[in-house]
Amino acid sequence: MRRRALEGWGFNCTCELCAADPEHIAQSDLRRHRLAQIHEEMESYTVGEKYVDDRVEELTYLIEKEEMWPLFTEYYTVASRAYLSVRRPDKARRYARIADEAWHAYGGENHDGVDEMRQLWSDINQREPQLSEKRK
To answer: Is the pLDDT assigned to residue 46 strictly greater than 80?
Structure first.
């Protein structure tokens, strides 16, 4: 899939992963496919807290295994929103902070996710008092 995606650009990638044996490439492709599934599932906001905990643990493992650290920007943003949906503002804040730090590290101060992160922090700050009160 990687090679086909690059064909249109007239580029033959010889990176370590593209040059790996077919089994290694297949395992990597499965991990990347699973990451996309987790992203889609967490965006549905119809999951429970235990589910979100498990998916965040899994996606963290997969991102680290694939050495795709910039994905923490997007995936932890989605995780933060998922935690808000299950009424866990403390966890939403934790993952928003990590996503925000990753955005700055990989995209700079004026990164592509600036508006989304501002909105996320606003949503957390607005909902946190309500959700914290309900948990008492």
So the answer is: no
DSSP for 57-106, please give it: HHHHHHHHHHT-TTHHHHHHHHHHHHHHHTT-HHHHHHHHHHHHHHHHHH
**Is 59 in contact with 33 (CB distance < 8 Å)?**
no
For 13, phi then psi, to 5°, come to -75, 135
**Higher pLDDT among residues 6 and 99, named by residue:** 99
Q: Residue for token digits 């932890």?
A: 76
Give per-residue burial for 8-44: e unless 16+ CB within 10 Å, then b: eeeeeeeeeeeeeeeeebeebeebbeebeebbebbee
The reported pTM is: 0.80
Supply the Cα-derived Rg of the chain in whole angstroms.
17
Evaluate whether 80 touches 52 at the Cβ level (below 8 Å): no
Around 11, how many Cα atoms within 13 Å sit in the side-chain half-sphere? 9
